[in-house]
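Figure-free illustration: sequence to structure, shown twice.
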Amino acid sequence: MKLDLNQLTIQVRDVEASIAFYQKLGLILIVKSLPEYARFVCHGRQTTFSLHRAGPSEASKSTWIYFETQDLDHDVQRLLDRGLEFEELPTDQPWLWREARLKDPDGHQLILYFAGNNRLHPPWRIHEAL
């Protein structure tokens, strides 16, 4: 079996507020079914990301979402200029990715990153994989 991730849905308390946040990040809104649901398409036009309204006790703050960008430092500066606040500005990590971190309105951890070839081919990669 060959699986490919093409859709991710997270639970949020306020779909409309989350739409505004994710549009600031640059995602393209393709479905808006308020107050319950919204769906975006990511830059490569192959992956979709959606929001589903959850009750107050259902929204999870343990979700970590990674968005890859080819020009991390420039994109982070653009987002700072749009008023978004980052917990960590672009930093080179020991796993050879450059990452910046912020939270969405529901506290989901977002990591904007650039990994280049190291995303799929780090020096410690298992050689039998792929």
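We now fold a second protein in the same way, so the two outputs can be compared directly.
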Amino acid sequence: METFKSFESKLYTVNDHSFTDIALELFRFQAANNPLYKTFIHHLSIDPNGVKTLEEIPFFPISFFKTHSVQTGAWQPQTVFTSSGTTGSVTSRHFVRDLDFYLRHSQRCFESFFGPLSDYHFLALLPSYLERQGSSLIAMMDHFIRESQSPWSAFYLQDVDKLLRDLEALRRDHRKVILWGVSFALLDLAERAPRDLRPFMIFETGGMKGRKKEMTRQELHGILSDAFRVETIYSEYGMTELLSQGYTRGGTAFQGAPAMRVIGRDLTDPMRKGLLDETCGINVIDLANVDSIAFIETEDLGRVFADKTFEILGRMDNSDVRGCNLLVG
């Protein structure tokens, strides 16, 4: 793999049969060209040429995004995505070489699950993200809104009354409607203005951001389903340090995008990987992270299943309170 473009062509042909070969090729490339990762592997006394399986790949602790510029190769970032955090906390920074690639890739991730953006109106209720700089979610949603080419697609910050009026007007429209909201804002809407939102699609993401008490994802979906009288609540899994997203299609199990794979690790021995059907630490392979690091040891707790779906159970002890901290019962 000599250039980003040559790898991008492989990224969109990846499937269950080719994923391992592409991931191992990317691992060897990053082990040689990412100075931080190279040093990390050296301290583990691992020979990259001896790594033959996904489980043998050393995963890079996500905390390094808070303290270092994590880059493969030498280049100037086009943008920097930053994480949300509690007041005074150190936030993660993901240096992005090509913003347009991220936007196009996020579109491919979404469309691999739900079809063309042009089939939808996107109504975005994301107050905590709109109120700060550097949100990858806002960049993605702004792209979705523009690419939908819908006069109704828009962000809503404080004007919930307009959001409700627009939803009512769209009942008669032929396009599908997605109400995409941060979890605490959707709960606020459910408490303030419960109503029948069938047949709209409701997507929750981002957790409570310290605005409300934590609850299981099942509890959250139950409250939203009852308030809005919809059978299915959808969820998006993404983070500052990833360029790919995963989604649920109902229930609490996420499916990663084609370029994404989740591997469970033992909570006391991070080198023991490949755990299934039990509580574990979540490691993520994101092949889209070719310019940063594709193999990330997150601070999320979860469960990984044989069909490659996964659940997020919460955050590990002493981890920062961030977006992916909903619990699953």
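Summary for the second example: The chain has ten helices and 15 strands.
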